[in-house]
Amino acid sequence: MQTAIGIIPARMASTRFPGKPLKIIAGYPLVQHVYCAAKACKTLADVWVATDDIKIADAVENFGGKVVVTSPDHTSGTDRIVEAVEKVAGDAEIVVNIQGDEPLVRPSDIDKCVAEITAKNNADWATLIYKLDVGSEDPNTVKVVCDSNGFALYFSRAQIPFDRDGNTPIQRFGHIGLYVYKIKALKKFASLKSTPLELAEKLEQLRALESGMKIVCVKTEKAYPGIDTPEDLANVNEIIKKNPELLNIK
After folding, report:
1. Domains and their CATH numbers in the chain
2. Tens-digit pLDDT profile for residues 185-194
């Protein structure tokens, strides 16, 4: 099996929630929850936090995690991942971009994506999708349509597919932003300029599709909420109080 590593991009300067990675959930900083989830994966040979902030780096080292310091000039988490890969990937062939604001991410979902991209020689990326029962008209809910082999045809903030006659039974799917890349494909992607569909929808995975890359979609349950605002933080704390088994810190 190809060697896979996990990298968690983390930065302090979130527009909506500054200092987010160090906010406390159930007694531990957010970044520690994500790190422990990644460490619980069976398919990851190593896990790193990629950050440009010394406070985050110190916090990760304090709980025994690995950290790689990256440039403060990156405009996206993907750019930070690329720099981290250059520094710590070694002989790894696959890297998982694990969102640093998803404290309830399921290790089993990461493992499924790594297994799927390893099994499909023609896959460049893998990502997660879930059955979408509500919210298909919400532009904050990203939708995806796939071909018969499970590869993404298109991602959109619009409701897709559109049922013209209104009488066709359609199962719509939402997208969860966990990305698994073959490292060669990630480096190629990072070298490409932004594309028209990417700029229109504000979805960088469309740059990959417009450039001919193949993204395999792995079905899972709907994700638990991530942390974008103080209200989200309170919500996740409440979820864990009611469901302590969801804690990834053991």
Report:
1. 1-105 (3.90.550.10), 121-223 (3.90.550.10)
2. 999 999 999 9
